[in-house]
Amino acid sequence: MKGTTFLLTLVIMALATSIASAYDPSPLQDFCVAVDDPIKALFVNGKFCKNPKMANANDFFFPGLNIPGDTNNPVGSNVNAVDVTKIPGLNTLGISFVRIDYAPYGQNPPHTHPRGTEILTVVEGTLYVGFVTSNQDGNRLFTKVLNKGDVFVFPIGLIHFQANIGHYPAVAFAALSSQNAGTITIANTVFGSTPPINPDVLAQAFKLDKNVVEYLQKQF
């Protein structure tokens, strides 16, 4: 019985370690303010750390999320991400924040965050949101219509989207479980890569005529 308990403990610890390693490493100090100058600095989580004694309040501050973003673009949305590139004090803390503005009928098109889960709340307007599960889960679509004050979660790495289905502008705020969650916009990535993906590959994958694929690639 003791042997079984010990083995079970090892399995649980192994799983916990595996889960933990999939996210931003936990800091071993109060903070690690990111700096670009490598002189006399420690390299942690992709950034050099400022001497903690030289850190100040501005390293943990970003103004301006009260200002609407410009949604005059083809998708009708604007994402203002406040990550480690804008608040250097976020380095190693495993969190970031965004404001998303949507024009009437604008959208934040299908995309993924490879390094973070997202939790979003609507502060103005009505959004149709959703995510698609992995191939192993059958690519199931989970959707919801969100109104002011509603909250929705997009699990890490899964393709998701938001669309403004109202006649008026919409605004949402979201937090992500990474200091730099990354964004892969599906259409831009597939049809706008540099250099372009061979059209024959995309034509077969999407079951489209090659001319259609080449047209789509020109749009990006």
Note down, in words, how this protein is organized.
The protein is globular. The chain has helices at 2-20, 186-191, 199-206, 210-219, and strands at 34-35, 42-44, 47-49, 77-82, 96-102, 107-112, 118-124, 127-132, 141-146, 151-154, 159-164, 170-176, 184-185. The relative contact order is 0.15. It has 220 residues and is an alpha+beta fold. Residues 4-22 have low confidence and may be disordered. Helix 3 (199-206) crosses helix 4 (210-219). The strands form 3 sheets. It has a 5-stranded antiparallel sheet, with no helix packed on it. Strands 9-8-11-6-13 form a 5-stranded antiparallel sheet. Strands 1-3-2 form a 3-stranded antiparallel sheet, with no helix packed on it. It contains 4 helices and 13 strands.
Overall average pLDDT: 87
Strand neighbour order, sheet with most strands: 4-5-12-7-10
Give the termini distance in whole angstroms.
62 Å
Helix content: 10-25%
- Shape designation: globular
Percent of residues in beta strands: 25-35%
Structural class: alpha+beta
Keywords:
220 residues; alpha+beta; five-stranded antiparallel sheet; 20% helix; 30% strand
Detail the topology: elements first, then pairings.
Blueprint: H1 2-20, E1 34-35, E2 42-44, E3 47-49, E4 77-82, E5 96-102, E6 107-112, E7 118-124, E8 127-132, E9 141-146, E10 151-154, E11 159-164, E12 170-176, E13 184-185, H2 186-191, H3 199-206, H4 210-219
Helix pairs in contact: 3-4
Summarize the structure.
With 220 residues, this protein is α+β, with helices and mostly antiparallel strands. The protein is 20% helix and 30% strand. It has four helices and 13 strands.
